[in-house]
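Can't paste images in this forum, so I'm doing it all in text. The chain is below; anyone willing to post the predicted structure tokens underneath?
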Amino acid sequence: MRKLYEKQLEELHGRIIQMGALCEVAIACAVKALLEGDAALRAKAIETEQEIDVAEREIEQLCVRLLLHQQPIASDLRHVTAAQRMIVDMERIGDQAQDIAEISEYMLGSPVKSDVHISEMARSASKMVTDAIEAFVRKDLALARSVVAYDDVVDERFEKIKEELVELLTLHREYAKDCLDLLMIAKYLERIGDHAENLAEWVLYYLTGSRGDGKA
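Text version of the structure:
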């Protein structure tokens, strides 16, 4: 019975990694669709978000089976609980990548997207997701804590983009709609960073029993 349980835990671990990889693909495709105006990448981001939704449902079902049919010890229970929480954040990351992809369709040919540091912010948010999943894979406390700290960088870049957009609006009122669309995209990237921070905190919980700041 224990061998079966350990096999199911390994499956859970692998499925979390796969779902994290889908999130990385969705973000990359959405941002490239925005910057390059690529319809195929936009479609790929939306398609990947649907795969993320399916993965969330399947992992949740696996977690329920583990909890109902087995009697997990404390560390294993943390593993399953953390997985249940992580897939919620990853599903929302997928949603926000889809939102970025959908907005990108309305920004084809816009000069505004090259006038702000949106690509740098996208790289920072994507790095947080990648590092959070890597921390889970490697059971790396230091990396998980670095992801939590790095959210400040994403927040700073969001504030910088807001300042850039205000300046653009002051000089070019005709770009008002594009500026608003870019502000929404920047906000979605900021939220992706928040969800990545949550992922890292759940890795901390999985490894230590605490989310790192007194949260349980």
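The two ends are 30 Å apart (CA to CA). The domain at 2-208 is CATH 1.20.58.220 (Methane Monooxygenase Hydroxylase; Chain G, domain 1).
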